Amino acid sequence: MAKKETKQNFLGGAAILAAAVAVVKLIGAIFKIPLTNIIGAEGMTHFNTSYKIYNLLLTISTAGLPLALSRLVSEANALGRENEKRRIFHVALGLFFLLGLSGSLIMFFGTEPLAELMNNSLAFYAIRALSPAVFCVCLMSAMRGYTQGQGNMKPTAVSQILEALCKLVVGLTLAVVLLRQGCGVEVGAAGGIFGVTVGTAASLIFLSLYLLRRRSHTPGADIAPSSGRLLKRLLVIGIPITLGSSGMSLISLIDQSVAMGRLQDALGMSEKAAAALYGQYTFSENLFNLPSSFVYPVTMSLIPAVAAALAQQDHSRVSKLVSSSFRLIATLVIPAGVGLSVLAGPILLMLYPSQHADAVAATYHLQLLGVACIFVCLMVLTNAILQSHGRERIPIFTIIAGGLVKISMNYVLIGNPDINIKGAPISTLCCYVVIAGLNLFFVYRTLEEKPSYWGLFFKPALASVIMGLGARISYLFCNGALSSRMGEYAGNALATLAGVGVGVAVYVILIPLLGILTADDLKNLRGGDKISRILHLK
């Protein structure tokens, strides 16, 4: 590979990935919102069933190893060990090839038993349509981990956007065409999710060409360790992270299987009726996952940056990186979670006009999941902090603890006829509160300079509550004035946008007033000086 890779500082790298994630999530919303309106609640249950199976296989194959790869490459890069850096990548690429191929074959040939295991046999078509994506994403993960380990986030960002665009165009087109041909919603869901497969293939081609064009055969001065030794290091670091990450994917998979099973067994619903009811929960899940996606760019930049600092024994740098991460996440995700909660109903009605009854029913889910997403984001960040300090095993146990809470509560609550599917968001909230709380405790015990959680979270939380009140009041006022004149949908949509606008304005004003961020917090962020001037930060 080329000796001179583009370098970005930690926050600059996070900014590039965050911008890419913002674009990807916007495209994802443009994809999932119309797809939900096209295939409905039942179709989205089939879509999500296949995606959760895919996500588990993908997590087992790639969750820890790309982070381990990124960490090892970052350490080698910081020490100028070019030959070691290249060999790490080649070893990882071979390993990922085998894992990806195995995952795709399991998903393709095991489609029927997997669908039955999920108590959703109609998800058969969607599961098979998504199976090739496991292979593509595994190879992509090796390539992304290699470039990120060198501090170059741009290839990952571009490949993510390319993947999302292909998914949007191909997925929506196939879903519409198949339903117009008279196919059922289960086939329409398969068409929609096949867009994901096409997107991953396109992204893999891009990354392959990028690395081929920038490869270098010039040898370094260092003597690289053997491939076997490097493979062992990858596995030692990656397996505990994989176990922790795959634990949550496995729990999510079991959770849906339990929910579908309880709706059918305890409440006597048919498979189609259970899928339609569970689909209401997926309406809110789509929005619930948005805030956490903005945490991953920070963690992807944080882990190699902390690893490099620890390799150089720069503990002061480590403390600054961790503190900056906490401040950024608290400032972004707490208002996002509060906003989703206070405007849950209006947002769902605005996004899903053709699924009005299901959107109304999903309001309760999103009100709870809005709060839950704050704890999800804290879980993701604290996992990364613990992993970067070599404490990969701790998240395994905290996730198991939260997962047991979630599955047991789901079994009891969903089986209650008076609660049924409303038990799902309750168990989700309790699950992530447990995990985040335990993680925060262990992070406090791990860091040499102890963080002040009160100082980090109180001001963003206070500003978010004020913001939420402003957003809700403005929505109620505007909706009352507009709905009678413009119709229910148009009035609600404009009032919702007004509420969001007022909420954002209130929060932006409160940032400098309450001292939530300072100019020093943003000085390493790309465009940070400009943002500081706009917000009048000192």
UniProtKB/TrEMBL annotation:
<keyword id="KW-1003">Cell membrane</keyword>
<keyword id="KW-1133">Transmembrane helix</keyword>
<dbReference type="InterPro" id="IPR050833">
    <property type="entry name" value="Poly_Biosynth_Transport"/>
</dbReference>
<dbReference type="GO" id="GO:0005886">
    <property type="term" value="C:plasma membrane"/>
</dbReference>
<feature type="transmembrane region" description="Helical">
    <location>
        <begin position="89"/>
        <end position="110"/>
    </location>
</feature>
<feature type="transmembrane region" description="Helical">
    <location>
        <begin position="233"/>
        <end position="254"/>
    </location>
</feature>
<keyword id="KW-0812">Transmembrane</keyword>
<dbReference type="InterPro" id="IPR002797">
    <property type="entry name" value="Polysacc_synth"/>
</dbReference>
<feature type="transmembrane region" description="Helical">
    <location>
        <begin position="489"/>
        <end position="517"/>
    </location>
</feature>
<keyword id="KW-0472">Membrane</keyword>
<feature type="transmembrane region" description="Helical">
    <location>
        <begin position="394"/>
        <end position="414"/>
    </location>
</feature>
<dbReference type="Pfam" id="PF01943">
    <property type="entry name" value="Polysacc_synt"/>
</dbReference>
<feature type="transmembrane region" description="Helical">
    <location>
        <begin position="51"/>
        <end position="69"/>
    </location>
</feature>
<feature type="transmembrane region" description="Helical">
    <location>
        <begin position="456"/>
        <end position="477"/>
    </location>
</feature>
<feature type="transmembrane region" description="Helical">
    <location>
        <begin position="294"/>
        <end position="311"/>
    </location>
</feature>
<dbReference type="InterPro" id="IPR024923">
    <property type="entry name" value="PG_synth_SpoVB"/>
</dbReference>
<feature type="transmembrane region" description="Helical">
    <location>
        <begin position="164"/>
        <end position="181"/>
    </location>
</feature>
<feature type="transmembrane region" description="Helical">
    <location>
        <begin position="332"/>
        <end position="352"/>
    </location>
</feature>
<feature type="transmembrane region" description="Helical">
    <location>
        <begin position="122"/>
        <end position="143"/>
    </location>
</feature>
<feature type="transmembrane region" description="Helical">
    <location>
        <begin position="426"/>
        <end position="444"/>
    </location>
</feature>
<feature type="transmembrane region" description="Helical">
    <location>
        <begin position="364"/>
        <end position="382"/>
    </location>
</feature>
<protein>
    <submittedName>
        <fullName>Polysaccharide biosynthesis protein</fullName>
    </submittedName>
</protein>
<feature type="transmembrane region" description="Helical">
    <location>
        <begin position="187"/>
        <end position="212"/>
    </location>
</feature>
<feature type="transmembrane region" description="Helical">
    <location>
        <begin position="12"/>
        <end position="31"/>
    </location>
</feature>
